[in-house]
Amino acid sequence: MPIQALLGQLLVGLINGSFYAMMSIGLAIIFGLLGITNIAQGAFYMMGAFFSWLLLREAGIGYFYALVLSPLIVGLIGAAIERTLLRRVYKLPHEYGLLLTFGILTFTQGLFIYIFQTAGRPYPVPTELAGGFNLGFMFLPKYRAWVVIASLTTCFLVWYALEKTSLGRTLRAATENPTLTRAFGINVPALMTLGFGAGVALAGAAGVLAAPIYTVSPIMGADLIIVVFAIIVIGGMGSIMGAIVTSVSLGLLEGLAKVYYPQGSNMVVFVIMIAVLLLRPAGLFGREK
What pLDDT, on the 0 to 100 scale, is given for residue 83? Predict the structure, then answer.
């Protein structure tokens, strides 16, 4: 096996792992704060990519501005959904939240298919990130290197904000004891809206990063969300660090599987998920109850 092929597949796996990480930490935030399994995360990923494409086509707004504006738009849409729909199911069994977000996913995907059809639309790589580096043993495209660095930096900044800052401590307090948190004069419903908006904005940012690599399509998030949920189960529901470490590790494992056992590369995540559920149901980084 040529070293170039192996490193190329590992790079693809690392890129996929970076997208998994951004989507899965958003899911972890939402589940940890709201207790809702957000099936619609794949739709918000797709919306982030589409809004960046629309900003470029309709307003001439380039990639780096879209990288800020698209997640902001997605986050505002998510906040509106939380205030108008999700808030009604918080006190109901978990299945209601799952079914509601599945309905949001189905409606959003169907709406975008109705407007744009299913054909993919290319999004150009920004000129600043065109080309690549010749490392001797392989050619490393600048944009793919940027995606990995930007994704993982964002993930660790989110982890730091949640674990090491007063805002993160307040969010965790609102999750664990909302009644006591309210007694200190903190607006818990606003925190929940902020948490859901931030969680889906991360999926939107992943969509913007993915747009120049994959074609922008209404169905681009449908398959990805299944893998992301498996990653959340493996890492531990609600665990931010578990989501990051598991996403990158499984992305690299997928890359290796495509080299040595291509037929089974798509099953690697699910085989590991089954093993983790049998041996440690709370996940590798989750807390046993």
Answer: 92
pTM of the entire predicted model: 0.91
Host domain of residue 70: 3-279
Give the per-residue pLDDT at 66: 95
286 found inside a domain = no
Of the pLDDT bands very low, low, confident and very high (cuts 50, 70, 90), residue 137 is low
Give a yes or no: residue 284 inside a domain: no
Total tally of structural domains belonging to the chain: 1
CATH number for the domain that contains residue 167: 1.10.3470
In a domain, 285, yes or no: no
176 in a structural domain? yes
Show the 3-state SS of the chain: CCHHHHHHHHHHHHHHHHHHHHHHHHHHHHHHHHCCCCCCHHHHHHHHHHHHHHHHHHHCCCHHHHHHHHHHHHHHHHHHHHHHCHHHHCCCCHHHHHHHHHHHHHHHHHHHHHHHCCCCECCCCCHHHCCEEECCCCEEEHHHHHHHHHHHHHHHHHHHHHHHCHHHHHHHHHHHCHHHHHHCCCCHHHHHHHHHHHHHHHHHHHHHHHCCCCCECCCCCCCHHHHHHHHHHHHCCCCHHHHHHHHHHHHHHHHHHHHHCHHHHHHHHHHHHHHHHHHCCCCCCCCCC
